[in-house]
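Hi Y.,

Following your request, here is the sequence exactly as I used it, all 130 residues.
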Amino acid sequence: MDCAKSIPQTDGKSNCQKLYEYYLKNPTADNAQIMTDLNWSRAAVSRYRYRLKKYGYIDYELSPAGKVCAVEILREYSPEDEPEETVGFKQNTYRQIAAACLERINDPATTISQTIELIRELRMVLKEVM
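Below is the corresponding structure, written out as C-alpha cells. Let me know if you'd prefer a different format.
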C-alpha cells in the first residue's frame, strides 16, 4: 500500500498528504502532538510517516530513545507520483487468496495435512499484505 492508497477523507486528501502538510507547519511535532491534532492512532502516524519517507517526501532521524527528531521536507508532495493502481490490485489479489484459504480451512472435507499446507500458504499471503 502506498500514500496514494491511504484513505481519503471528505476533503479529498490522503492521510499521507495530511501528514505531509502537517509536517510543513510543524516539523518538530512528536507523535503525541500529531495523534491529538489529527485524531490518529500511534500506528497510523508511524505508518504514514514511514510511507512519506519511503517515497522520498521527507527524512527524519531517530533519537537514541527511538523518538523522531525534526522532520525535513525533501520534495513537494505529489500523489500522482505514486503507483496507486498496481498496489491496489496486488492488495486485492492477496486478500482474495487469503479469503479462499480461510474458506478451504473451514471446509469439513479438508484434511489435516491440507489444513497445515493452507495455513502455510495463508501465512505467506499475509506476510505480503502486511
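The radius of gyration is 19 Å.

Thanks again,
Q.
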